[in-house]
Amino acid sequence: MKKSSTYSRRDFLKSSGGIALFVGASGILPQLVSCSSPEEIEKVLEKHEVTAWVKLSENGDITIFNPASEMGQGSMTSLPMLFAEEMDADWSKVSVEFSPQESEIYGSPGWSPGTKMMFTVGSRTTNSYYTTMRTAGAQARYVLLHSAASHWDLPIAELSTKKSKVVHEKSNKEISYGELVSFLQMPASLPEFSEGQLKDPSDFQLVGKNIQRTDIPEKVTGQAKFSIDIRLPDMLFGVIERGNLHGSKPTLLNEPEISASKGVLKIIPLDYGIGVVANSLEEALAAKKKLAIAWSESKASDHQSQEIYGSYEKIAASKDPGRVLTEKGNVKQAHRLAAKTFTSDFKNDYVYHAQMEPLNAVIKVSGDLGSAEVWVGSQQGFDTKLGVPEILGIPPENVTIHLQYLGGGFGRRSMNDFVEECAILAKEMAPCPVKLFWTREDDMTYGAFRPLSLQRLTASTDAQGNLTGFSHVVVGDGGGLVASGVQNDHYDIPNQFAEWREASNGIRIKHWRSVGHGPNKFAIECMLDEIAKDQGKDPLQFRKRLMKNSPRALATLVKVEELSQWNKTTASDRAKGVAFVEHGSLGSGVCEISVDRDSGKITVHNFWIALDAGVIIHPDNVKAQMEGGIIMGISSALKEQITIVDGKVQQSNFHEYELLRMEDVPDDIETFLISSNSHPEGVGETATPMVACAIANAFLTLTGKKLRHLPFTPERVLEVLRS
Which PROSITE patterns does this entry report, sorted A to Z (predicted)? Predict the structure, then answer.
């Protein structure tokens, strides 16, 4: 190894042929120890590995590396399916592992040209990795074909593949991928494989089939590893008291008492909290309860979440311009010439992520503070090493991330504050590993919420009832956190304008499933129903006319009309509501509700969805995503609410932050997947934002009353009914 010490692991991951080779797989490093030259190293790699994305063994077992987080959305199956499809792998021999967290090798195209990211957010995983995984699979297949051609001394053009075999039909020869391992040869260069050179979707053998998800069996048996399950020798436990006033600074008043507490090893002060490390979690939590802390005032100190809307209304009415989000035509002129103008305000409270697994991480820092290992369930990020190198002051290549299953993310685990905190504690306790826990109370009181916001919409129609102008002012904190989803690209409205006006209150905020689409699509879709009702028009037919120039969007609306039997008369105590959402994929949804006019409780009985997501990789999983998104949407629309008084979060756990119960889940959720050969789009965030508007629109049909403030708690529903 001394002779080849100039070749780093990162160098091994690159090759002159333009394809990445993976170093570090079991069984390879011991052989590298005896290598005396780069040429010998390459021979070992050529024998045992095909590409960075796959390991192939002599018995034919295939391990495909998954670069994305797995938090229940099925990426551990859908991405390897794409690779295996192009590789012509026998799926029964495939297993899946998380890839190393190395974005230059395993990253997908980023949000800006030339960047690569490992970031499981924004429903972009399948969309961004679709070509990457297929190309990598095709290259792996080419390596196998090339090796077989060399072994048999035949032209590669005469060979084909099927179910982990290379076949020469003329001579009736075939060889399995496993048998080829001892003959593997890396070609001097590899084809880049343009989209047209990959399989035609009509030839797919795996993609589009309902294959069992790779993560389900071990989750059912309890063998699946989440970071909360990690136990290491000599592991210590850390907790942090952060308070419930965001941005407040602590002064510890009883440090001697805490230091003398049973099992406590160290007290670690932070700018916003007090950390405690102990021999056991129980001892750490017991000491945390005894902390006496004086908290400073903060920017959030005077914030009243239920009273702030008056200030937001003034901001919306102000003549001071905000940041323009979209502009088409001349909306001011459209409003000025309108036969009728409609103006409405829509509001939404803070919402908590409520992911099932509490935030946690395990970090082991070496005794010399020069390297670290991290075990965590993360949605990754722009920094694939999750901020740990900066905390420790070491190079990124000295940090190894062991990605685990996530017990829910919804955007919260794309924020790596809990990983960075663990690194701070682990640095102090090196070389002992430290496990940091956020309790549910920690995460709820010091959460990073979907922002509170207000949307002011103004729409205009001409004398024939045509929608001529649509303006949208978003007031709230966080830029894209509140401003995404304001575009109406699939509605033919000639004059449109949207802007964001900032209003910051010092509250921690973060992406929450579908981000700004939830509040903004709620406002847009409800506004359309209000206009349709005023004109005496059927809201679904009203949308159809607006979609005349968007055939794919229109097709989802036509299909959901059929699924829901929209035109069939419902029972007198029920009504249907419709909504359309574009969040990567295109989806139209219809819900059927009833309302208890004595209690104010809304019940969603049925939900129908028609979805165009392009090529569907795994149909059953897409339907599961739709069902989960609808249920989460109902929960957030009817129940979920964080309130803040004098800057302090009022909810502490699920006895105060209500979630949807099993008894309130719809009787039926039906999803229809529209066939398409278009590039696949994300599906994880399409269903959730259509729920609140569909419910509100059904409520408008049933009662003639307008719900404009999320969530629709029984108290608010009764207030609207009595207004």
Answer: TAT (PS51318)
For 186-195, the pLDDT digits (tens) are 787 778 888 8
Q: Is the pLDDT of residue 181 over 90?
A: no
If one looks up domain 309-351+449-722 in CATH, what number appears? 3.30.365.10
Q: Which of 262, 229, 601, 225 is nearest to 435 (CA)?
A: 229
128 is written with which tokens?
């961004």
* Tokens representing residue 312 in the block: 């937001």
Residue 239 tokens read as 């907790």
In the predicted structure, residue 643 carries a pLDDT above the cut 90: yes
Predicted model pTM: 0.93
Residue 105, pLDDT score: 83
Query: CATH 3.30.365.10 occupies which residues in the chain?
Result: 2-221, 227-298+359-437, 309-351+449-722
- DSSP label of 296: P
SS3 string of 657-668? CCCCCHHHCCCE
Rounded CA separation 572/549 (Å): 35
Q: Which of 286, 293, 301, 298 has its CA nearest to residue 242? A: 293
Structure tokens at 285: 């939590």
Cα–Cα distance measured from residue 471 to residue 342, given in angstroms and rounded to the nearest whole number: 10
Among the listed ranges 18-22, 107-111, 112-116, 166-170, which one has the minimum average pLDDT value?
A: 18-22
In this structure, CATH architecture of domain 2-221: 2-Layer Sandwich (3.30)
Are the C-beta atoms of residues 274 and 291 closer than 8 Å to each other?
A: yes
Contact 588, 610 (CB under 8 A): yes
Tell me which architecture the domain covering 227-298+359-437 has in CATH: 2-Layer Sandwich (3.30)
